[in-house]
Amino acid sequence: MQLRPWVILVSGTSGLVGSALVPALTVGGHRVIRLVRSQPKPGEEAIRWDPLVGMIDAAGLERAEAVVHLAGENIAGGRWTAAKKAKIRHSRVKGTWLLCEAIARLAQPPKVVLCASAIGYYGDRGEELLTEESAPGSGFLAEVCREWEKATEPAVQRGVRVVQLRFGMVLSPAGGALAKMLLPFRMGIGGVLGSGRQYMSWITLNDVVGVIQHALTTDTLKGPVNVVTPHPVTNREFTKTLGRVLGRPTLFPIPAFAARVVFGEMADELLLASTRVQPTRLVATGYRFRSPELEEALRHFFQSS
């Protein structure tokens, strides 16, 4: 158990997870240093890097006792053109390799590196129950996730405890997938996507922050960790539950072909793929979920907003 504040370097601080994590760490007494692409302002607690050109302020890394690496191109931010896919891959793989190589060269590396990954590692697996021991899947996201996790190898070889956080769908009304769903569902035009049988493995943003804090302080936790609740649901179950919580009908299904017309390849890998994941390592190391059940989580969001 951590007994004193740490100096923690965090990348991706403007994203959904990072923007919630930094205040939580600060309130907990930790000193947070941001890893940023712009020139830090005088007095700002920040270190500059530019993954596109392979530049990082390695000297600044010496201060970090722990690293939480969340940076990466938004995979749901538009159709997957060849250029978009290249940015997704490069931002994750090259950025992670750059950071971990710099860490490996430090005289005194950080105690732990937490690196974002995703359950896209498993690909489209139907009803198969997946754990951290399951084989990787196929497809663009699975390939990216394999390369992304492999890019942490320099830090692993240096003897740093490295945790690859395989995030599921992070739920928050403030951003991400749920925020995009709210308008159509509140208008009463939400509905099942495709067959509705595809599994959605999810977790609340509040629990993501809790998992990161747990991973920072749990010395036995290393390697891939599924960051999802123990209760994945099908798209049909998710749709009906969200409609019930919002008090709206869910009578307007979106056929698979329509999703493909609008979103292209992204539809098959993000919206229609079935990934039924269990958080085996989190449970084994004693993490207690704050919102393990979907309806409870959604009601908390909307009753407190």
The averaged pLDDT comes out at 94
**What is the fourth-level CATH superfamily?**
NAD(P)-binding Rossmann-like Domain
What's the architecture in CATH terms?
A: 3-Layer(aba) Sandwich
Structural class: alpha/beta
**What is the string of helix and strand elements?**
EHEEEHEHEEHHEEHEEHEEHHHEHH
Q: What overall form do the CA principal axes indicate?
A: globular
Number of folding domains? 1
The biggest beta sheet, please? 8 strands, mixed
Taking pLDDT < 50 over at least 5 consecutive residues as the criterion, the unreliable ranges are none
Give the spatial strand order of the biggest sheet: 4-3-2-1-5-6-8-12
Helix content bin: 25-40%
Count the E strands: 14
List its traits.
Rossmann fold, 305 residues, 8-stranded mixed sheet, two-stranded parallel ribbon, alpha/beta
Describe the structure.
By secondary structure, this protein is of the alpha/beta class. It has a single domain (7-303), classed as 3-Layer(aba) Sandwich (Rossmann fold), CATH 3.40.50.720. Helix content is 40%, strand content 18%. It contains 12 helices and 14 strands. It has helices spanning 16-27, 58-61, 82-104, 140-150, 153-157, 176-186, 205-217, 235-246, 256-263, 265-271, 280-284, 294-303, and strands at residues 7-11, 31-36, 46-50, 55-56, 66-69, 112-118, 129-130, 161-167, 169-171, 199-200, 202-204, 223-227, 233-234, 276-277. An 8-stranded mixed β-sheet has the order 4-3-2-1-5-6-8-12, with helices on both faces. Strands 7-14 form a two-stranded parallel sheet. α3 runs parallel beside α4 and α9 (256-263) packs across α10 (265-271). The longest helix has 23 residues, at 82-104. It is globular. It starts with 6 loop residues before the first strand and ends with a helix.
